[in-house]
Each structure stands twice: as structure tokens, then as C-alpha cells.
């Protein structure tokens, strides 16, 4: 399960609220956020730890939390990466230029925004200062599906079938050494920047007998690897929301979620509301379960329940279980 290397992974608003997935790895400023809807349940510390945000589309329940993200990161000396469907650059720029920024030297955050278009990727670096300079947009050919990559993971994407341009995402954890949150919690050394330094040396194949100084002590890489790290075969987590389960979306979604350890999936409607699902381009709980079955995922987590089912969410879970047994929701 990829959660062994992940220190936190949860739906910020549970299955019934705006679909926002927070994922964090220990020891570095490297948290990821899938969708930028209501994130008031995330404190400033978690938001300022973000490395990248992956927006599915620009409907308000998937984009309204951008302001809190920017505010939490203003004082960070970093580049915050943000990805989304066509016109994301322009929409983020219109938000940033609407503010007056205090002229503080410590406010050095930059937002590198990326648009995903058919066959190409556009990007621009935006600065939070007065005046907010217009974006200098660059672009290149892009075949996909890999959109983002660092030493620990990559993020893949495919377009889906919604009423507006919309994307689905999958996080793919790389094989090899990863910090073990349970071991870190129990160990003498507290999580810190040393984790990244040790990981770099372990992944480079350095001798386990070599040493490193941490907090005034000297440790061998082998001892640290045994006491604070784990080796994993890698894992996949898919995030799918606001799409019809149609001939257009089916092949891409099935490939994106293939053998995922977890599939977080839109289940806005129950069986019997197929007409509404077709009109508004959402999934039913049954359709989410069909995707889980076809993609051979290990676990399905339903999300984005429509308000009409308040007090009856168990009905959606049971409906999905008639097609795919390992289903749950988060609260």
C-alpha cells in the first residue's frame, strides 16, 4: 500500500464535500493537493508545505480554495507548481492581479502555472507582487500522460468527459527507498531535512557503510535505512471526478487507474438518476464501481456525493458494492 511511505493522505472534506485530496510525504516541503476546492480544514502549515496542485477543472467547488493556498505560501521562498486544463494560466493570473501585495522582501513565492491542451503543454511563471506582471507564456509539444515528476513520484493525467474541459490524475510512487512514517514517529531522530539528504545518497547507490552527521551525531546509511526507511515496489493512486462514464472517457480512465492501490472516484448520482448523470456529465456509484472493476484496483473510495443524498450516503456505498466489493467513503 503506498500509504506506508505517505505520512498523510485524506479527503479534506470527506466524501460528501468538495473533492480535495491532500497527500504528504515526511521530511520535506513536498505535499500535493488534488483539486483546489474548499480547503478550510487544511491549516496554514499544511498549505505552506505544498509543492504542487493539480486542478481538474474550474467549477467553483474545485477552484474556490486557490486564494487560501496563495496566502499560505506568500512568505515561502519557493516555486509552487499548479496544473490544470486549458486557460488555467489566465484564470490564475486574473486572481493574482486582483490583489495588492505588501512590499515585503520575504514574499518570494512564485507560482508556475501549467495548461494541459490536446497535444501541447503551456506554462508561465507568475509573481505575487505589485504590479503582477502579465504571464510570459511558453509552450511545447506534449504527448502525455506524465505531467509532473520528482525523485519520489510522477503524476499522470488524461482528459475526461465533463461539461467543461476537465482532467483526471494518477499519482505513481516510484520504486525504491522511501521514508517510513511509522518508523520516523517511533525513532529518536525527528523528521527534518536530513531525510532528503539520506534519500539522495541511498537512491544513488552509495555504500551503506558510509556515514552522515545529523543533529550532532554520526550515523551509517545502513543504520538509517533500517531504522527510518522502507523499500516499496511503488504504488498508484487515481483521482477521478466530474466525468461521464462514456465511450469517450472509458479507455483513458481505465488505463489511468489500472491496478491502482486506491481509486478516489466521483459518485455524484445513484442508479436511477442516469438521465441527470448524462446531462451533467457525472458518474453514478455503479459507474464508479464499474471503473474500479475494469481497472482492477485494490480499493475504491467514493466521493463527491450530491447533496440530495444527505443522510442516505450508505445507499451509494451499497450500490457500488453490488459491482465491486471493496468500497468505502471518508467522513
Give an overview in words.
The chain is globular and about 65 Å long. It has helices spanning about 45-50, 65-75, 90-95, 180-185, 195-205, 220-230, 250-255, 275-280, 285-295, 315-320, and strands at about 10, 20-25, 30-35, 50-55, 80-85, 110-115, 120-125, 140, 145-150, 155-160, 165-175, 175-180, 210-215, 215-220, 230, 235-240, 260-265, 300-305, 325-330. About 25% of the residues lie in helices and about 30% in strands.
Please tell me the CATH architecture of the largest domain by its name: 4-Layer Sandwich
Tally of DSSP β-strands: 19
The fourth-level CATH homologous superfamily of the largest domain is Ribonuclease Z/Hydroxyacylglutathione hydrolase-like
Shape: globular
How helical, in percent, are the residues? 10-25%
Element order, helices and strands?
EEEHEHEHEEEEEEEHHEEHEEHEHHEHE
First-last Cα distance: 21 Å
Question: Pairing-aware structural class of the strands and helices?
Answer: alpha/beta
Which spans of ≥5 residues are poorly predicted at pLDDT below 50? none
Rg from C-alpha positions? Answer: 21 Å
Average pLDDT: 92
CATH topology title of the largest domain: Metallo-beta-lactamase, Chain A
Total domain count: 3
Main beta-sheet strand count, sense and barrel state: 8 strands, mixed
Amino acid at each position: 500500500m503506498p500509504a506506508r511511505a505517505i505520512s498523510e493522505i485524506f479527503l479534506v472534506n470527506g466524501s460528501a464535500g468538495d473533492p480535495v485530496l491532500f497527500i504528504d510525504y515526511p521530511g520535506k516541503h513536498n505535499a500535493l493537493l488534488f483539486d483546489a476546492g474548499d480547503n478550510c480544514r487544511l491549516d496554514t502549515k499544511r498549505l505552506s508545505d505544498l509543492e504542487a496542485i493539480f486542478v481538474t477543472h474550474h467549477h467553483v467547488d474545485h477552484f474556490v480554495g486557490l486564494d487560501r493556498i496563495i496566502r499560505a505560501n506568500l512568505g515561502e521562498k519557493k516555486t509552487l507548481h499548479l496544473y490544470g486544463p486549458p486557460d488555467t494560466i489566465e484564470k490564475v493570473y486574473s486572481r493574482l492581479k486582483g490583489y495588492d501585495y505588501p512590499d515585503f522582501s520575504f514574499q518570494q513565492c512564485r507560482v508556475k502555472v501549467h495548461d494541459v491542451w490536446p497535444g501541447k503543454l503551456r506554462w508561465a511563471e507568475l509573481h505575487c507582487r505589485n504590479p503582477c506582471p502579465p504571464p510570459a507564456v511558453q509552450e511545447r509539444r506534449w504527448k502525455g500522460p506524465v505531467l509532473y515528476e520528482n525523485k519520489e513520484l510522477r503524476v499522470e493525467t488524461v482528459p475526461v468527459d465533463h461539461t467543461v474541459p476537465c482532467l483526471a490524475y494518477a499519482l505513481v510512487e516510484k520504486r525504491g527507498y522511501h521514508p517510513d512514517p511509522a518508523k520516523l514517529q517511533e525513532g529518536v531522530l525527528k523528521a527534518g531535512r536530513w531525510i532528503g539528504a539520506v534519500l539522495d545518497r541511498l537512491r544513488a547507490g552509495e555504500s551503506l557503510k558510509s556515514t552522515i552527521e545529523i543533529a550532532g551525531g554520526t550515523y551509517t546509511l545502513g543504520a538509517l535505512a533500517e531504522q527510518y526507511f522502507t523499500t516499496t515496489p511503488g504504488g498508484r493512486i487515481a483521482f477521478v471526478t466530474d466525468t461521464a462514464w462514456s465511450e469517450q472517457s472509458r479507455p483513458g480512465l481505465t488505463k489511468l487507474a489500472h491496478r491502482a492501490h486506491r481509486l478516489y472516484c466521483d459518485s455524484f448520482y445513484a442508479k436511477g438518476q442516469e438521465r441527470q448523470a448524462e446531462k451533467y456529465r457525472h458518474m453514478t456509484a455503479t459507474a464508479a464501481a464499474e471503473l474500479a472493476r475494469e481497472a482492477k484496483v485494490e480499493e475504491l473510495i467514493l466521493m463527491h456525493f450530491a447533496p440530495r443524498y444527505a443522510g442516505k450516503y450508505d445507499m451509494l456505498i451499497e450500490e457500488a458494492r453490488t459491482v465491486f466489493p471493496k468500497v468505502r467513503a471518508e467522513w
